Amino acid sequence: MWRRSAGTCSGRETLHMKFPRVKLPWPTVRWRPRVRAGMLIGALCGLLGFAFAVQVQSTQGSTLESARQEDLVRILDDLSAREERLRGEIAEQQAARAEISSGSNRSGAALDQARKRADELGVLAGTVAARGPGVVITIDESSQRLPAELLLDALEELRGAGTEAVSFTGGGISGRSVEVRVGASTWFADRGDGIAVDGTQLTAPYKITAIGDGQTIAAALNVPGGVIDTVRRAGGGVRVEQVDDVTITSLRPIKRPQYARPAK
Amino acid sequence: MVRSRRGGRTLSDRSLTPKQRTTSGLLTELLEQHLDPAYEVAVRRRKADPPSRRELRAGVLARNLVLLVIGTLLATAFIRASADAPQAARTRAALAADARDQAALTDRLQRDAVGLRGRVSAERAKALAGSAAGSQAQARLDALEVAAGLVPLRGPGLIVTVGDAGGKKDPVTGDAPPADPNDAGRIQDRDLAEIVNALWAAGAEAISVDGQRLSPASTIRAAGQAILVDFRPVSSPYEVRAIGHSGRMQALFTESRIARDFTTFVQLYGMQFTTRRTSAITVPAAPATSLRFASPRGVTR
Amino acid sequence: MIAVAALIIGLVLGLVLQPTVPVVLQPYLPIAVVAALDAVFGGLRANLDGIFDDRVFVISFVANVLVAAMIVFLGDQLGVGGQLSTGVVVVLGIRIFGNVAAIRRHLFRA
User: C91, B31 in Cβ contact below 8 A?
Assistant: First the structure.
């Protein structure tokens, strides 16, 4: 094909020599050329419109498109942690099912399982006393009163560090210290001289007891912009103490939901 | 004056100054003449002075050698480019695609986990139904599963929708510009946490953020500018659903500090903030957490 | 025919041997590739036009690659490396486009 021609063949003749007309093996419909062309043009326009619509749709992406690169890396890390946790849960459930579906003592095994599971959920929900390693955080305020958002941030940071049971202790109305157990619906609000935790008034100094991985929790609290940083900037004092064994005895009452019903 | 078919001036237009002729020549040459003119010159040269056999053979050899080199060059460049890809910073688009896929995977795993949980619960309930102790244990377990957020719930309530200020998009690519950390119109994880806090204070019984149920262990945190709920990225606009007495919740919530702040933010920064009462919303179940550090103490049966 | 074979053999050699490019030359590899492609398509078109010449092909390839690399190198020294390399790529790209269009006209008569 790359033969050097002596310049005697013209382009068109070269074409004929190299690419003879191919006969298609199937019968081609002999429509009028104009109808065929029109259909072809219509099909191509349809394709173009489709591609246009797809592109417009895809550009209405989520936040992920606009996140920075380093953020995406952290998001991927977090998603991996989530995947690991979910796979762990699935494995546990499968083990639980194996326990209660085999063997002779089905109801006995089921009873044990139900009790153990209820206790664990109770620890998470705050209705069962808990014990384990963790941290004790003491927050003192100086002249500047600490806002409720501070304790809210602290709780979010603790949850992010994987704590399994948390309680807030502070001065109560009667003068004695009061301990409030944390659950999913725990809320904070400025009230009076201090902060109301789940409606219970507490005054500084506050003590937060959390059960979990002490090192992870301490690291999470020490990040710049975190709770420790904020308290110190507000002039308060904060101390984090890692402990091997701490017990949280305060409980939350189990409230039956009045408006929410299980959905099937 | 010679006019071309298009009616414009051509190179042979004598009324063009030499400078104009050269300038239009450069552009014309770029846009019209893509083949090296040396080929045509070579044709004429060959006609005038036909090459010898030796020159022909040398020419063929040189040509094939060059083609060999070109092939090697292309292959090397291809290998170089594909080897650099993992080292060179992967584009945002590739990372974002990965994150989307991973999020979809975890969503699927969540559905599987919830389904499996349901089946195991059903079997356990059957096994416990026989005895009094069993029924008691089952009742306690049911109540605690609800308290821990492991049961999907439905009921009347409030839907609070907050969103970042207006979406700026690059008109050419359609991409949103990279997040600006100093953008005051951007919702942060703290804002969402405070809205959730105000809803709990207003009497909510169950809350979900963008489809993620809040359990005792749920986290709302930020990875840079992105917000993650329970380690799953969520995007603006954020829909917070709260089940409870819708009228009372709305009254208490709109009085709260964060709701009033947001009403101001809407005017100042153009954020979105709406509160809507509804008679039926559903919130899904949360992923379960197992205890790794805490152990129950002194449990009463 | 031998020409196509030579190209393919070169590709295979490159994929198999995986020659390491000296670090100094690495930034010029992409531009060399584009210049080489321009020479290849130019040669292909010349062949279809019937005016192919070995000597012109070889010299055009060598000159293209050298000139493109030199322009980019100069640009780097002057501080306009990015812009000059964009310019070179644009020009070579236009030429490739034009030659491919002519080839298409030959092959499909359209």
Answer: no
